[in-house]
Amino acid sequence: KKDEFIVFNQGDTFWIEASERVETLRVYDILGNMIMEKHPGDTSFQLIEPLSKRGEVLLLQIIQADQRERVKKVYKH
């Protein structure tokens, strides 16, 4: 089974798709400060993140239903 975590964004809106249900999503700035935590409980969802500016690099940490953790670096468009 392929394990995927895909993120698309436009402005403040991020669309997230994962191969397994996401229990917790945390958004960090490049300095490691957590700026948001959500508990979507789904494999596909949207996230509105208005605190960072366009051009910033963000780190998205997901914790899936089986407690696996993954981190993805994203560039806010």
General form? globular
Overall helicity: under 10%
Supply the number of helical segments: 0
Integer average pLDDT = 91
Instruction: Classify the secondary structure makeup into a structural class.
Output: mainly beta
The share of residues in extended strands comes to: over 45%
Low-confidence stretches: none
**Total number of strands:** 6
* CA-based gyration radius: 12 Å
Q: Let me know the largest β-sheet.
A: 6 strands, antiparallel
Q: Can you write the helix and strand succession as a string?
A: EEEEEE
* Distance from first to last alpha carbon: 31 Å
Give a structural overview:
The protein has 77 residues and is mainly β. The protein contains no helices and 6 strands. Strands 1, 2, 3, 4, 5 and 6 form a 6-stranded antiparallel β-sheet that branches. The radius of gyration is 12 Å and the shape is globular.
Produce a short descriptive summary.
The protein is mainly beta. It is 0% helix and 65% strand.
Key descriptive features of the protein:
mainly beta, six-stranded antiparallel β-sheet, 6 strands, 77 residues, single chain, 65% strand
SSE topology:
Layout: E1 5-10, E2 13-29, E3 34-38, E4 42-48, E5 57-64, E6 69-75
Antiparallel strand pairs: 1-2, 2-3, 2-4, 2-5, 5-6
